UniProtKB/TrEMBL annotation:
Keyword Translocase: yes
Protein name (database record): Phosphonate transport system ATP-binding protein
Database matches in Pfam families: ABC_tran
UniProt keyword terms in alphabetical order: ATP-binding, Cell membrane, Membrane, Nucleotide-binding, Translocase, Transport
Gene Ontology MF: a single term: ATP binding
Domain ABC transporter: 29-273
SMART domains the UniProt entry points to: AAA
Length: 277
């Protein structure tokens, strides 16, 4: 955590004194000069961004602009070519093996295509999030759940309004309900950073609003750092604090959603502007 300078705090008399540290001012996710090429084609062109505790950041941009690749690089699902990624204060580039796995557990990813085990109950799936943060790989069988995990998982399901469906098989839940279970699983993992890749693209407008409200609550009430790839700028305008706009693998907008003008939206989504050359 870096002390703010007098320039950043706007004070001058405290220039020689370390500023008091403000946890809300510290990014839980800090990405610097991230680059990625596929087959020689630049997909991420040295992007910098951060996400702080307590904020919901929307990633916007045309198809192919690099949004998913960005989140996948953070999660280690895609190997970046360059740049650094800091998660909850740990620089991932300096870590290997168990240390890297442990640092990555601070982040959880929620996908459009929900990665739950359909034949297992909502409760068992949420417990699996808790198992992810425990060291040894364990079976999803309830017989192996550590003491207290079920109670915590129930509390997480309650938090997303799904406690009454805890014992239902996930395969019998609607898309919106499954997405809420996926968020409960991230909560049970005790992730500090939640990355959501098109979490509402497969949902009807009502369910999409519910899931976006929940993402906002995770940021604003649970104080998590939340980043979501969205294809609907209007959802970003209603729910996010900040938007990051990608164009051909570069960030061209990174500001409060209130400053996302229609001209900027046109630039982000106009035809033939998406993919990097
Ligand atoms: N594994 C891969 N191999 C080759 N090319 C890839 C791979 N993953 C992504 N790409 C390419 O990288 C570019 C960016 O893809 P990415 O999925 O990050 O875009 P996006 O902004 O999330 O798009 P969309 O809105 O369509 O989901 C695209 O041209 C895509 O084809």
């Amino acid at each position: 955590m870096k002390a703010r300078t007098s320039h950043q705090t706007g004070t001058s008399c405290l220039a020689e004194m370390p500023a008091p540290l403000d946890p809300f001012d510290t990014p839980l996710l800090n990405v610097t000069r991230l680059t990625k090429q596929f087959s020689g084609r630049t997909v991420l062109d040295g992007i910098d961004f951060s996400v702080r505790a307590g904020e919901l950041v929307a990633f916007l941009g045309a198809n192919g602009s690099g949004k998913s690749t960005t989140l996948r690089c953070v999660m280690g699902l895609t190997e970046p070519d360059g740049g650094s990624i800091e998660l909850s204060g740990s620089d991932l580039s300096g870590l290997r093996g168990q240390h890297l796995l442990r640092a990555r557990r601070h982040a959880a990813m929620v996908f459009q295509k929900i990665h739950l085990v359909p034949r297992r109950s909502a409760l068992e799936n949420v417990c699996a999030g808790g198992l992810a943060r425990l060291s040894a790989a364990r079976s999803l069988s309830p017989a192996f759940f550590p003491k207290g995990l079920k109670e915590e998982a129930m509390a997480c399901l309650d938090r997303v309004g799904m406690a009454d469906r805890a014992l239902d098989r996930v395969g019998r839940l609607s898309g919106g309900q499954q997405q809420r279970v996926a968020l409960a699983r991230a909560l049970c993992q005790r992730a500090q950073v939640v990355l959501a890749d098109e979490p509402v693209s497969a949902l009807d407008p009502h369910a999409a609003e519910q899931v976006m409200s929940l993402l906002g609550d995770l940021a604003h009430r649970e104080n998590l750092a939340v980043a979501a790839v969205l294809h609907q700028p209007d959802l970003a305008l209603r729910h996010a604090d900040r938007a990051i706009g990608l164009l051909k693998g570069k960030i061209i907008f990174n500001d409060a959603v209130g400053n996302l003008t229609s001209d900027m939206q046109d630039l982000l989504y106009s035809p033939d502007r998406g993919e990097a050359a």
